[in-house]
Write a structure and sequence with these properties.
297 residues; alpha/beta; Rossmann fold; 2 domains; 7-stranded mixed beta sheet; globular; SAM-dependent_MTases_sf; sequence-specific DNA binding
């Protein structure tokens, strides 16, 4: 009841047609992640508190910046959280925070002087320690346009308020987020691997819930190919696996006809949700599941 009251106090009555004010959502991820799901956090909280009991495990097979999984772990919405990510750059960050010296990483960020020369030294180096690789990834994420880590991404030029490369570098905020995750890391497992395989391996478990947010590349959608290094995914196979899951799942996808057709073929239900992209343009995405009755309160 306390979690439900907390959610209602923060977000009020959720409206799928009204864009969520992301400023009202607690930010836990150190990433600026293309396709990030901060706007969806209130809906996931409502979905989880609608479950008959607190889930034993929450699995996010395409974690990326992991704002959803981190929210679940930090706010205690499931007993344990498993994050899965195949991208080795992103994986380095989660391995450093979950299994490595996260305090070193937090202080490295806090004490780093952002200059063109210092950035070039870090980004051009080949590091062996997971903590240094993690720092390199976070730096690249913060100085590249849109937070894009894929090859060919350009760096910020003018930036926010003319601050250039410093415009997305908030060292104390990043430090505090990493320390916050570190405080609860015993609740989190990280796996560097294929999200589809993890779904298949856990399909028979009724005590697991899944948040599934794959790269959007259905019907020739180009965003995923530009934004992510690992953008290829068998969407038909993903839906087929989702059909076999014994636990509940919530899937989010681009609002396109091809996705709707696949979802309908598997007997899933859909709801269109309003959101804003990183350019502050209002868009819609699909929520997909076996049942979305919880959306009506």
């Amino acid at each position: 009841m306390e979690i439900r009251d907390f959610q209602l106090r923060l977000f009020g009555s959720l409206d799928t047609k009204r864009v969520v004010n992301v400023a009202s959502v607690n930010q836990y991820s150190p990433f600026r992640y293309p396709g990030g799901k901060t706007w969806l956090v209130p809906f996931v909280i409502q979905w989880l508190i609608s479950q008959p009991k607190r889930p034993m495990e929450f699995i996010e097979p395409f974690a990326g910046g992991a704002i959803i999984g981190l929210t679940v772990a930090i706010e205690g919405l499931a007993q344990h959280v498993t994050l899965v990510e195949i991208d080795e750059q992103v994986a380095a960050v989660w391995k450093a925070i979950i299994y490595g010296d996260y305090r070193w990483l937090a202080e490295r960020i806090a004490n780093f002087e952002v200059t063109q020369d210092n950035i070039e030294v870090v980004l051009s180096n080949t590091y062996t320690s997971i903590e240094e690789k993690a720092f390199q990834t976070i730096l690249r994420n913060r100085v590249n346009r849109g937070g894009i880590l894929a090859p060919g991404a350009g760096k910020i030029k003018t930036g926010e308020n003319g601050k250039g490369l410093k415009s997305r570098w908030y060292p104390q905020t990043l430090r505090n987020r990493i320390l916050k995750i570190g405080e609860v890391r015993e609740r989190i497992t990280f796996i560097e691997g294929d999200g589809l395989q993890i779904l298949e391996q856990n399909a028979t478990r009724p005590d697991v819930v899944y948040f599934i947010d794959p790269p959007y590349t259905v019907a020739g959608k180009k965003a995923g190919t530009r934004l992510y290094t690992y953008f290829e995914i068998d969407h038909e196979k993903l839906f087929a696996i989702a059909k076999t899951l014994q636990g509940e799942f919530l899937m989010t996808y681009d609002n396109v006809t091809a996705v709707k057709e696949i979802a309908e073929q598997h007997g899933f239900v859909m709801e269109v949700i309003s959101m804003k992209n990183t350019h502050n343009r209002e868009m819609t995405e699909l929520l997909i599941g076996r049942s979305l009755e919880w959306l009506s309160g």
